[in-house]
Write a structure and sequence with these properties.
The protein is of the alpha+beta class. It is built from 4 helices and 16 strands. The relative contact order is 0.17. Helix 1 runs antiparallel to helix 4. The strands form 2 sheets. An 8-stranded mixed beta sheet has the order 2-3-4-1-5-8-7-6, covered by helices on one side. An 8-stranded mixed beta sheet has the order 10-11-12-9-13-16-15-14, with helices on one face. Helix content is 17%, strand content 44%.
C-alpha cells in the first residue's frame, strides 16, 4: 500500500492548484480537518495541508493559463531530466521543464492520452499516507488503459495485475521493486462510457466514514461526482468535487485491504 518510504515510481507528493486558495483551505479544513500552513512569503501563497502536525498534501494558486483546478500527483524519480526525455520519447509532453527545488528537482508532464502528472527527484515527501484523512490511492482514468500502462512502465518500471471489478477491467499498479502486492499504490480504469470525462489521475483519501464526508463536502460548497457506493473487496467510495470543481475521491477501505 501507499506509504512514506518513497521508492522509484511511488507517489511522493500531491498538491492542489486552485483559483481561490483561501476558499480551498476552508473547504478541505471542513471536510478532512486539515490545517493550512504557508510555506512563507517567498512561496507565492503555496503551502501545506497538515493533519496531526504532519503534511498530507499541498495547495497553491492556479496560475497556468487554460489549466483547470485539479489535484496533481507527483511520482518519485531518481533523475527528473532522464524522465523528461523518456516522456517525450513515449509520446507525452513536458509542461514544466525539470527545475531545482530545494535539494531535488520537480517537473510536470502530460501523458499521450492527456492525463497530467509530475515527478519529484527528492527523498522527502508526504509525512502521512494510508491513514484516515490522508492519501491512500491514486487512480488513472484513461481511454486506452493498456497503452497507458506501457507508457508509465517505460518511465517507472511499474508492474500491473488485473483485478475483477463489476462492469470493468481494472489494473492494479505496483512499483517496480519488492513484493508486488505490498508495492501497490494505485490503479488504471477505462473512462466511463456515456460520460464526458477526460483522462486524469484521481487521488483517493482514506476516511473513517464516507457518507459523513460526502455530507460535509455538500455543506461547504462541494458537489458529488459519483455517489457513495460499496465496491466488493475494496470498500466504500465516493467521488467529490470541491467548490472550484477539482475532483477527488474518498475511500473507507475494506478491513481486509488494510
Amino acid at each position: 500500500m501507499l506509504g512514506t518510504e518513497f521508492r522509484p515510481g511511488s507517489p511522493v507528493w500531491i498538491d492542489l492548484g486552485s483559483p481561490d486558495p483561501e476558499e480551498a483551505a476552508a473547504f478541505y479544513g471542513a471536510v478532512f480537518g486539515w490545517r493550512f500552513v504557508s510555506a512563507g512569503p517567498e512561496a507565492g501563497g503555496y503551502g501545506f495541508f497538515q493533519k496531526d502536525g504532519k503534511t498530507v498534501a499541498a495547495l497553491g494558486r492556479l496560475t497556468e493559463r487554460g489549466a483547470r483546478p485539479a489535484w496533481m500527483t507527483y511520482f518519485r524519480s531518481d533523475d527528473a531530466d532522464a524522465t523528461a526525455r523518456d516522456v517525450v520519447a513515449g509520446g507525452g509532453t513536458v509542461r514544466v521543464e525539470p527545475m531545482s527545488m530545494g535539494e531535488g528537482k520537480l517537473a510536470q508532464f502530460t501523458d499521450p492520452q492527456g492525463a497530467r502528472f509530475a515527478v519529484s527527484q527528492s527523498l522527502t515527501g508526504l509525512e502521512k499516507a494510508s491513514e484516515d484523512d490522508a492519501l491512500v490511492w491514486v487512480e488513472l482514468h484513461t481511454a486506452d488503459p493498456e497503452a497507458a500502462i506501457r507508457f508509465y512502465a517505460g518511465l517507472f518500471g511499474w508492474r500491473s495485475a488485473q483485478m475483477s471489478t463489476p462492469g470493468m477491467t481494472y489494473q492494479v499498479l505496483s512499483i517496480g521493486e519488492g513484493d508486488q502486492q505490498k508495492g501497490s499504490f494505485g490503479g488504471v480504469a477505462p473512462l466511463r462510457e456515456g460520460q464526458e470525462e477526460e483522462a486524469r489521475w484521481v487521488p483517493y483519501f482514506a476516511v473513517a466514514d464516507v457518507d459523513t464526508v460526502v455530507a460535509a463536502a455538500r455543506d461547504h460548497g462541494g458537489s458529488v461526482v459519483i455517489p457513495a457506493a460499496d465496491v466488493p473487496d475494496v470498500g466504500r467510495i465516493a467521488w467529490l468535487a470541491d467548490p472550484a470543481q477539482a475532483v477527488f475521491a474518498v475511500l473507507k477501505p475494506n478491513p481486509r485491504q488494510g
